[in-house]
Write a structure and sequence with these properties.
0% strand; Arc Repressor Mutant, subunit A; 77% helix; elongated; homodimer; DNA-binding; 203 residues; mainly alpha
Chain lengths: 203, 203
DNA sequence: GTCTATATGACGATAGAC
DNA sequence: GTCTATCGTCATATAGAC
């Protein structure tokens, strides 16, 4: 295996393990064993254990992990254009829920790194989350100017919306399968959350 | 210092450290140093490191940490009795936000233990969160029967509400101080979230 | 009840052969 | 590029003196 491939393979193995057990809960020996190489190989590709952690976000950025929920959704962009609010918030919700839950490892990793106050979470926050606030908040402000939504700090509405979505995904990932306190499809969840927010902020 | 006091002291020192760096990120040596005792003392009071972790929830339960947001709030109970929905949801929100943010360490600890799938989070979930769902969900169902709130799964409304609250508190704890993406008082947040939810689910 | 001293193993990281 | 073997350090946990 070439150096680049091996490096990628180690990185993805490490992402899986870090997302399961956190940074300090994962040993280089485990990563090596899971990747099917010796520990020494790890340290040929990454000088320090923490270098693996730092490389994760670059890898995500290079692949599709940092794509925005609206980039590929023609239906959403069309709804925005037509100012079909119900559709806009439903599409935003369903995209967010599906994406979050399709990459459980990354969401767990983000939580870990936020708690550990690692650069990873901070960069994700300023590069990704801030733009989401700008995008959704911008749409709400536009609709406020149209007189369709009531006057309020649009960022609070965004926080409420993202709060429902992220909290629900975390619940699905961490609890619902075993505990089943609330067992609904993402479609149901997205419809309900979109409707609650929309009725909640309309004029 | 008597055994009980020393045990409590070690426990609280450990809670602080676990909440900052997680279970595997905290060493018994650090706990000992922070508590001002030798490492051997730790292992006299707790046979294994993980026993400290397990003892945390019992300690919380013995103290005030597991109290319900409505137990001490006469204003809330009165509002429920009078069916003053706006007041009910505002009081629930402000209580939750204040409590979550007054015990940052515990919230961080819960997040860590949820990710680590430790008993701690699971017990908190089934002993505390489930009852919150029952309480708030019960009130919503009552108001649905009154015809004041629209037909929907009340648990979804609860999840949306708790999502706003918990997500906002996590943002405050983990980000807002440094990044200031959204700097509002808990009062403002509670008013807005309560209003969004209420308008969102009323008939 | 607390200490010093230490056992035992796992940890991150390196050296050197192939 | 990969391995085996090993380093020094730090981890959890224990023994025995005071």
């Amino acid at each position: 295996m070439k150096a680049d491939e091996r490096r990628e393979q180690i990185l993805h193995t490490a992402i899986d393990l870090f997302s399961l057990k956190g940074f300090s809960g994962t040993t280089t020996k485990e990563i090596a064993r899971a990747a099917g190489v010796s520990e020494a190989i790890i340290f040929r590709h990454f000088a320090k254990k923490s270098d693996i952690y730092s490389a994760i976000l670059d890898d995500k950025a290079r692949h599709d992990g940092m794509k925005f929920p609206w980039e590929d959704d023609a239906e959403l962009l069309d709804a925005i254009h037509r100012k079909d609010d119900a559709k806009v918030f439903y599409r935003l919700a369903i995209n967010a829920l599906n994406k979050q839950q399709s990459d459980v490892g990354f969401l767990r990793l983000l939580m870990y790194s936020a708690l550990e106050e690692h650069e990873l979470a901070e960069r994700f926050f300023s590069e990704f989350v801030a733009r989401v606030y700008g995008f959704i908040g911008g749409y709400i402000e536009e609709r406020q100017r149209d007189g369709v939504m009531r006057e309020m700090d649009a960022r609070i509405a965004v926080r409420a919306f993202l709060g429902m979505l992220i909290h629900h995904s975390l619940n699905v990932i961490l609890w619902d399968k075993r505990k089943a306190l609330l067992n609904i499809t993402n479609k149901e969840a997205a419809e309900n959350f979109a409707q609650i927010l929309l009725r909640g902020i309309k004029a």
